[in-house]
Amino acid sequence: MKFFPLLLALSAPPFLTGCVISVGGDGDSGYSSDWQEREYNNRKHIANLERDMAYESVVRRMGVADFNELHQKEDGVVRVLYYRTQRTMDDGVTSKDECTPLVFRDGRLIGWGEKAYAEI
């Protein structure tokens, strides 16, 4: 009877094997594809923008911006929306240098990109 627990312990491993469930895939996490898809969609939408579009129309198309600025200028109110379009650092945090600015003056799209932002 003393050997029964030892015999049980030695014979149990073949019966205790189980299935291994892989979550994620070949090194690509769901997080990775999420940001890639988001950046691709933002670039795709930006490529279809046209000057003089209304602010509300652009926001409906693009969704919530990553950053938002509002400037009062002598020639009107300037609003800048930043949408993430390219990853620069793998830190999980979106920064303005990873975004494309969309520039609006008095509720109308006047341009996008760094050059448009520099001209305000």
From TrEMBL:
Pfam families the record matches: DUF3192
Domain of life (superkingdom): Bacteria
UniProt-recorded name of the protein: DUF3192 domain-containing protein
